[in-house]
Specification:
Length: 598
């Protein structure tokens, strides 16, 4: 690793290169067409050196931390020296560097005086890339060939000339080509912005200095990552969690198992023991599995460490091919997001044994994917894609966050007004639910529900959710949260739906989706009664749950805690605990067993 030459100049350069990646992200945000990008912000931007080594990743998704280097490596493997000024590359193939088909990568090499110096990189989740279900994101597809248009690394532009054959092929295989091409243009705009700003850096410093500083930024990230890892205790820990099912073989649990070994200045996550790949579309690419590990580890390291190649050098990830953590052909993977989110929680479960003061309990299970597609009376297609999540597990120092995106997603929420203006939908409810968070000294975040009313004649509804059978775990005495739920027409037939499904809907149908409640941290009887009272005043905890879960008695007329009655009730609950024989559970190596298959 190189030593930093001029620390002040280096710091200025580091901030400049990361600002370019951030400006790319803002460019996508400002110019994109689809709600999944401009509202959910399901995209990432980055900057790599001439060899494809990640130097800086911009704002947006931790879930893309491992993706851009892997995808760019595939491009360079295919094209070698056949990379020229004016070229732009595109790809999405999960078996050749991609993650799942809706995530389309666009790369632009940047040259100066005939020498390649860098790559601008973007990845965006597109509203539709074809396939059997509108939105191309169904969890019940059983092979990659049903999921949409599979694009190997190709030249989108060759020396500045547009690949008309490729554009025509994409146009004929997606349901909303105007929106898809609009989003692709947003990616191109971000790459052009990066090229312009990077060339300004080259003009200011000279190409040799810029190349040296890019290497310095990578080496700096490795040094500070390794230094931070040395501060963590050494050890080997394992954790087991379960996905309810794959949406095809209902009721068949899917095992996640990770072993984390921390030794000196290096950490290894090994997913040996995780389930073989499944029939449904929740199989992971290795790059997405890496992203889950990187996210969990980075969250317990100090802030300010750059996200780049140097950081990843100190964190090793192993996942056997043919497992749900590292798919092989012909595995379906459109809904692999579910597995990635659950892998983050699985990593946290293991790391809670290494650094119990830094890790929070299981969150709401990761984002729920909902897509609604079809055709209006004029046969014009519409597609609504939403990824919704909103609560963290209880933390060792505070309650879990309410109404905040999962740590793996960093996504925003769709505007109700924009959704209703652009889609044949009406949002009837978007509200927190009482008594759903896992109780604890620090409770889990409060989950919410959403009610969607369909306004078109007919359409296809697809939902990808989980944490129905295996509830979000609590830590160190914290209790699990309540399960997720899907209901069709809750004020009418109130039909219970599976966690994962694809079905036809008609005008007036209402889907109610309820997020799972995150787990709590610590003994609920140790919770400050004043905090319980505050939750009651905010209608997040009922009087009955305050007594049953926390042993807190509140006078709801005067709105004050009855201290004497609370002390008496808590004493009774503790006495009852001593005589309680806990059932055997399917969990293993958890820091504090707090949940089981329901």
């Amino acid at each position: 690793m190189s030593e930093i030459r001029d620390p002040i100049a280096f710091e200025l350069f580091k901030n400049a290169i990361f600002s370019i990646a951030d400006e790319m992200a803002l460019t996508v945000f400002r110019t994109t067409y689809s709600g999944v990008l401009k509202d959910n912000m399901d995209y990432s931007t980055a900057f790599a050196d001439a060899d494809g080594k990640l130097v800086a990743q911009g704002l947006t998704l931790p879930g893309h931390l491992g993706s851009i280097p892997t995808a760019l490596e595939a491009v360079m493997r295919h094209y070698g020296n056949d990379i020229r000024a004016g070229d732009v590359f595109i790809m999405n193939d999960p078996f050749d560097g991609g993650m799942h088909l809706p995530d389309i990568f666009v790369f632009k090499p940047i040259f100066d005086n005939g020498e390649r110096l860098a790559f601008a990189a973007t990845v965006c989740h597109h509203t539709d890339v074809g396939g059997r279900v509108a939105g191309s994101n169904a969890s019940d597809s059983t092979e990659i060939y049903a999921e949409g248009l599979r694009i190997p690394p190709l030249k989108m532009y060759e020396e500045g000339k547009r690949n008309e054959t490729l554009f025509a092929f994409i146009e004929k295989n997606v349901r909303l080509p105007v929106k898809v091409f609009g989003d692709l243009r947003a990616q191109l705009a971000a790459c052009h912005i990066a090229e312009k700003q990077f060339k300004e850096l080259v003009a200011r410093h000279g190409a040799p200095t810029v190349k040296l500083y890019m290497q310095d930024v990578i080496d700096y990230a490795e040094r500070v990552t390794r230094a931070a890892l040395r501060e963590l205790p050494d050890g080997t820990v394992s954790f087991e969690d379960w996905i309810d099912d794959d949406g095809v073989e209902y009721g068949k649990p899917i095992r996640l198992f990770v072993t984390i070994t921390k030794k000196g200045d290096e950490l290894t996550a090994d997913w040996t023991g995780t389930s073989p790949q499944v029939k449904g579309a929740i199989n992971n690419t290795l790059s997405y599995t890496k992203a889950a590990v990187y996210t969990a580890v980075r969250s317990v390291l100090p802030p300010g460490i750059p996200n780049n190649e140097g950081t990843f050098r100190a964190i090793k990830v192993h996942a056997p091919p043919g497992t749900i953590a590292n798919l092989v052909l012909p595995a379906a993977c459109a809904a692999r997001g579910l597995t990635g989110f659950r892998m983050v929680d699985c990593c946290f479960g293991a790391m809670a044994m290494l650094v119990p003061d830094k890790v929070f309990a299981a969150s709401d299970g990761g984002n729920t994917g909902i897509s609604i597609g079809g055709y209006d009376a004029n046969r014009t297609p519409f597609i609504y894609v939403d990824f919704t999540c909103g609560a963290w597990g209880g933390r060792p120092w505070a309650d879990g966050l309410d109404g905040n995106s999962n740590i793996f997603a960093n996504m925003a929420s769709h505007s109700i007004e924009v959704t209703e203006a652009e889609q044949p939908l009406q949002i009837l409810a978007y509200e927190f639910m009482a008594d759903r968070a896992g109780p604890g000294k620090f409770r889990g975040g409060t989950p919410f529900r959403r009610d969607y009313r369909f306004l078109e004649g007919e359409g296809t509804l697809q939902v990808r959710s989980d944490r129905r059978a295996f509830r979000p775990y609590g830590l160190y005495g914290g209790e699990p949260g309540k399960p997720s739920n899907n209901v069709l027409n809750p004020d009418g037939e109130s039909r219970q739906l599976p966690a994962k499904f694809t079905m036809a809907i008609t005008r007036g149908d209402v889907l109610r989706h309820e997020l799972a409640g995150p787990g709590g941290w610590g003994d609920p009887l140790a919770r400050d009664p004043a905090a319980v009272l505050r939750d009651m005043r905010n209608e997040l905890v009922s009087a009955q749950a305050a007594r049953a879960d926390y042993g807190v008695v509140v006078d709801t007329v005067a709105w004050r805690v009855d201290a004497a009655a609370t002390a008496e009730l808590r004493a009774k609950i503790r006495a009852a605990r001593k005589n309680y024989q806990a059932p055997k559970v399917a969990w293993r190596d958890a820091p504090k067993l707090s949940t089981a298959a329901e």
